[in-house]
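Hi V.,

Quick status before I head out on leave. The structure for the redesign project is tokenized and pasted below; the design run finished overnight.
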């Protein structure tokens, strides 16, 4: 017994020691990972986008062939070519494994020579299932270098402010090639490829403003996220890998292997969702960082875009985009380029640029932006945004988060749209939203002007803007309309465009179907070439166990082998009973809990699965937390974190209520290993700092 105890202590100490070494060294470059790093350097430097490497997806030193891809070939043709070549090498490997190695063909001998001399037949059979394509990125890497000049200095400043290693400036090479317009097939966007679930913690993401598309704002968010990951994992290699794989997944990997060494995790961890992208994320970053730092060695002279030279002005009211273009003397196209976070609904005049938005303008030496803004006529400034009369359902939308977004209730949405409790909502479906107005909401396609009407008031009641009605009706002077005049209103389906998407949350009772495809920019995921490799974080917005929850949430929502769970914040015994489909009292009796005795965060509770499976319970539990968190981040965002050493006379709960006012579940996410009921004076607590989105509105 004593020997077993000492062995466990030694394992824990070794894990802690390896993590401490990683902290001290920062960005470590283990020699054991050099083969993988060299593979990605080859992808970034030698192989252009019209070529691909055919390789083993576990042993990247085994490259079977370099394949040329016709530049104008359709996606379907590229897929057929890649599959034909996969079949070729699968068969070669199987023939070698099943045959006599003394009578191999020339091609079979070539393939066998790529492997160690003692490779077993069983290993070759397994390798036949691991043939993979990786598209080249050399020309795209150079383009990324050029584009990076616009934001590189700013990114370095933000990384430094968050105490993130400067090498992380190269991470967008892996994610997007520094392309602000980059998007993935699962909705990741911008140079840092934030998904909605993760991005909404730090940025505003809706059908009016999507800050993931702004390289400056998203760089702030990326620096915060990387810093947060490191505060939880205490290891930069793990924190960087968690950017793709999620915090819970990396914590699970360390626990399972008993080490925080990145080389051990890359080579030995076999978590359910620790796929090709997660396994290669850190080594691809190391390769990108090395190439980025020594670009002249690989590409010669590169002309970088000049650093962005612009000014910003904070809008004091809601304003039409066309008005801002006119008063500042900047074309619509250029103003849109400087403000990529503004969605098409704003550019096309269906929504105002929000109050409080920091408008970015090209630098003009004589321009006093605040003075120009102050001179805008009052009739062009609005106190509120045009109302949303409809919502077009996006992949992942749930009624609960749609309700929070539009300040209504699920019950009201269901009643207004004749939805039953078991009805599905689907991507593309248009939902009517409640909107009360003493003069009546205009929903018809044509409106007859009444005595006393103004164009601005008609636009407000129709859920559109004055400029849109002027354009739609070819009006010379928007201030001159007459009683009886017929005005064309925008149609509901035009109001809710494909881009008009609220914060995404997987529904509990409502399921969403989607077949939408986007351009893929990630170095680790080129679906035209490699159909099996999607970025693990974005692929399903799940943690490494396959649980539907944010990848930034470090907490464990799984059921242990002994049928117990760890109590998380915002949970009650009633929740567990509801998700299990059993009476609460029976669960209390199972755990010897008295009536009204609360569960304690961090303690374990035993469950019984008589009516639902473990997977069903886990899905319901994770869905509850997902919607709880995403509903919160519809209204709030994280702008930083603050350490506080608890004094003898302080209570963590009173301190939070007085100074920080963050929900208990969010505080636990920033302190996942802290036993909240046993906090002692001197304990350092990390408090997230939050602010209201559109607090100025």
């Amino acid at each position: 017994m004593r020997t077993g105890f000492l062995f466990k202590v030694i394992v824990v100490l070794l894990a802690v020691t390896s993590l401490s070494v990683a902290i001290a060294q920062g960005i470590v470059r283990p020699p054991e990972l050099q083969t993988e790093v060299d593979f990605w350097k080859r992808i970034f430097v030698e192989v252009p986008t019209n070529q691909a490497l055919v390789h083993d997806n576990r042993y990247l030193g085994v490259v079977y062939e370099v394949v040329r891809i016709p530049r104008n070939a359709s996606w379907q043709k590229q897929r057929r070519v890649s599959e034909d070549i996969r079949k070729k090498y699968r068969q070669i490997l199987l023939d070698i494994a099943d045959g006599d190695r003394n009578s191999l063909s020339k091609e079979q001998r070539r393939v066998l020579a790529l492997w160690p001399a003692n490779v077993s037949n069983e290993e070759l059979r397994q390798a036949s299932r691991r043939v993979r394509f990786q598209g080249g990125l050399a020309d795209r890497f150079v383009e990324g270098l050029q584009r990076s000049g616009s934001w590189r200095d700013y990114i370095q400043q933000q990384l430094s402010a968050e105490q993130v290693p400067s090498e992380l400036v190269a991470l967008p090479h892996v994610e997007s090639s520094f392309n602000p317009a980059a998007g993935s097939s699962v909705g990741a966007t911008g140079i840092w490829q934030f998904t909605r679930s993760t991005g909404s913690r730090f940025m505003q993401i809706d059908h009016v403003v999507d800050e993931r598309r702004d390289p400056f704002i998203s760089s702030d968010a990326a620096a915060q996220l990387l810093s947060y990951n490191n505060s939880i994992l205490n290891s930069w290699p793990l924190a960087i890998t968690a950017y793709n794989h999620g915090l819970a997944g990396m914590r699970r990997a360390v626990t399972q292997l008993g080490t925080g060494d990145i080389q051990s995790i890359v080579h030995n961890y076999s978590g359910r969702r620790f796929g090709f992208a997660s396994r290669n994320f850190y080594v691809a970053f190391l390769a990108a960082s090395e190439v980025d730092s020594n670009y002249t060695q690989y590409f010669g002279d590169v002309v970088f875009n000049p650093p962005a030279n612009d000014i910003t002005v904070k809008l004091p009211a809601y304003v039409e985009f066309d008005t801002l273009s006119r008063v500042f003397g900047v074309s619509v196209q250029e103003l849109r380029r400087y403000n990529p976070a503004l969605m098409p609904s704003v550019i096309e005049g269906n929504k105002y640029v929000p109050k409080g938005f920091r408008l970015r303008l090209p630098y003009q030496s004589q321009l006093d932006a605040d003075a120009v803004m102050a001179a805008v006529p009052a009739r062009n400034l609005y106190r509120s945004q045009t109302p949303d009369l409809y919502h077009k359902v996006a992949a992942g939308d749930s009624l609960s988060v749609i309700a929070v977004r539009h300040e209504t209730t699920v019950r009201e949405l269901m009643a207004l749209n004749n939805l039953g409790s078991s009805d599905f909502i689907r991507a593309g479906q248009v939902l009517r939203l409640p909107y009360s107005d003493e003069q009546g909401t205009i929903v018809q396609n044509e409106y007859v002007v009444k005595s006393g009407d103004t164009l601005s008031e008609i636009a407000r009641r129709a859920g559109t803007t004055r400029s849109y009605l002027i354009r739609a009706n070819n009006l010379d002077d928007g201030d001159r309309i007459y009683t009886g005049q017929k005005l064309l209103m925008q149609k509901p389906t035009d109001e809710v465009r494909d881009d008009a998407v609220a914060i995404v949350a997987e529904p509990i009772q409502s399921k969403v179907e989607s077949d939408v495809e986007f351009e893929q920019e990630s170095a680790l995921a080129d679906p035209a070439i490699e159909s099996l490799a999607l970025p693990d974080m974005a692929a399903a917005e799940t943690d490494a166990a396959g649980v539907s929850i944010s990848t930034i949430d470090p907490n464990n929502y799984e059921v242990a082998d002994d049928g117990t769970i760890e109590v998380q914040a915002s949970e009650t015994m009633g929740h567990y009973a509801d998700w299990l489909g059993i009476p609460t009292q029976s669960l209390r009796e199972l755990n010897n809990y008295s009536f009204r005795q609360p569960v304690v965060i961090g303690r374990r509770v035993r469950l019984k699965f008589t009516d639902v499976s473990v997977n069903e319970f886990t899905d319901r539990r994770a869905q509850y937390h997902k919607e709880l968190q995403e509903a919160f981040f519809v209204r709030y965002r994280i702008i930083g974190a603050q350490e506080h050493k608890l004094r003898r006379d302080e209570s963590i709960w009173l301190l939070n209520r007085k100074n920080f006012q963050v929900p208990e579940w969010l505080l636990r996410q920033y302190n996942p290993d802290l036993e909240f009921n046993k906090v002692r004076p001197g304990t350092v607590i990390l408090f997230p700092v939050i602010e209201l989105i559109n607090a100025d509105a």
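Above is the designed sequence. Residues 1-24, 491-521, 526-548 have pLDDT under 50 and may be disordered.

G. will cover questions while I'm gone.

Best,
W.
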